[in-house]
Amino acid sequence: MKPEHFIGGQIPNITFGLLKDGEIQAVDAQMVFSHRKVVAIGVPGAYTPVCTEQHIPDFVRNATKLKRSGYDKLICIAPNDPFVLERWARELDPSGKILFLSDGNLEFARALGLTAELPSLFLGERCERFMMITVNGKIQNLRVEPNVLTYSCTRSEDALAADDEVCLI
Ligand code: BEZ
């Protein structure tokens, strides 16, 4: 199913991976998104240029503004393993403004039709570059870039401009 079919629905019942004190923990997706307004960005890969030099720094830079505008939690979802993701998160967001969650099994991306096949770039199966706004676990707004290398509609300014209307762009 295409991502637009999931607008208005709940966050899928899957688990993310998170490295804590050197151990991999399973984190329940519905728990993370419940009882709050969240902006989550999905990126195709840690350490890739657009993600590392543009997408994550933009959200780190504007984290305070996003929180002040009403987002309770900022999340980055990436298809890397929890070890890589933890190292990348520490480098880009040392003060921990964003929660980085591993979708290394692509459960989240598959459940929402957000997988991307990138064999020509030697990345195999990853996820699209997306931005999702959720309220109490319900998907209100989902934006998917036309391709993983573009960064045009999933920026922090798009999250700041988005209202609570249900929409897919
Ligand atoms: C990036 O620069 O973010 C990127 C590069 C290759 C594949 C996917 C993403």
Shape: globular
Poorly predicted regions are none
Identify every distinct bound molecule in the structure, by name, code or SMILES: benzoic acid
For the sheet with most strands, the description reads:
6 strands, mixed
| CA(first)-CA(last) distance | 16 Å
Strand content: 25-35%
Structural class: alpha/beta
- On the 0-100 scale, what is the average pLDDT? 95
How many domains?
A: 1
Count of discrete alpha- or pi-helical segments spanning 4 or more residues:
6
Superfamily at the CATH H level?
Answer: Glutaredoxin
Q: Please, could you describe this protein's structure?
A:
By secondary structure, the chain is an alpha/beta fold. It has helices at residues 29-33, 49-61, 63-68, 82-92, 107-111, 156-161; strands at residues 15-20, 23-28, 37-42, 73-78, 99-102, 115-118, 124-127, 130-135, 138-144, 167-168. It has a single domain, classed as 3-Layer(aba) Sandwich (Glutaredoxin), CATH 3.40.30.10. The chain has 6 helices and 10 strands, in the order ββαβααβαβαββββαβ. A 6-stranded mixed sheet has the order 5-4-3-8-9-10. The chain has a two-stranded antiparallel ribbon with strand order 1-2. It has a two-stranded antiparallel sheet with strand order 6-7. A hairpin with a 2-residue loop joins strand 1 (15-20) and strand 2. It is globular, with a radius of gyration of 14 Å. The two termini are 16 Å apart. Residues 44-45, 48-51, 118, 121, 123, 148-149 line the site of benzoic acid.
